[in-house]
């Protein structure tokens, strides 16, 4: 699981990087094989003015080419990371379950007739005495 971290208007210190890695490893560890890449973006929306403005956005690319984007805004960056990681865990688990469900319920094409069987069936249909009816009546308003 590759994790890229980006920061805008906020220092990305080594302790914050370690915290993000630990938190995501814990939250997404059970779905490790399904995840191809994770991007974490941290930003301070209001800058020095303060307020509820620390944003954590997590973009998760799954092996099935699906993407999950989670965003959370809080007054403290660690709280935003925690909440986004928790939501990411639940969302990725649901998404992977849906993908697996679709794979299980997909039609089994291996059970379909072979090409030789299909050709024999088509030949039988063509050789049977089947009458085809075509509508040969002229269309109204069209000259022939």
TrEMBL record:
<protein>
    <submittedName>
        <fullName>HPF/RaiA family ribosome-associated protein</fullName>
    </submittedName>
</protein>
<dbReference type="Pfam" id="PF02482">
    <property type="entry name" value="Ribosomal_S30AE"/>
</dbReference>
<dbReference type="InterPro" id="IPR003489">
    <property type="entry name" value="RHF/RaiA"/>
</dbReference>
<dbReference type="InterPro" id="IPR036567">
    <property type="entry name" value="RHF-like"/>
</dbReference>
């Amino acid at each position: 699981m590759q994790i890229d971290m980006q920061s805008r208007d906020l220092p990305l210190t080594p302790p914050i990087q370690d915290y993000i890695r630990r938190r995501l490893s814990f939250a997404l560890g059970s779905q490790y094989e399904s995840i191809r890449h994770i991007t974490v973006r941290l930003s301070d929306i209001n800058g020095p003015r303060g307020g509820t403005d620390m944003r954590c956005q997590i973009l998760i690319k799954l092996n099935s080419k699906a993407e999950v984007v989670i965003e959370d805004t809080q007054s403290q960056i660690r709280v935003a990371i925690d909440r986004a990681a928790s939501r990411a865990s639940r969302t990725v688990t649901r998404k992977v379950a849906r993908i697996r469900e679709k794979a299980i319920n997909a039609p089994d094409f291996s059970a379909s007739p072979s090409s030789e069987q299909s050709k024999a069936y088509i030949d039988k249909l063509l050789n049977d005495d089947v009458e085809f009816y075509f509508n040969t009546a002229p269309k109204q308003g069209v000259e022939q």
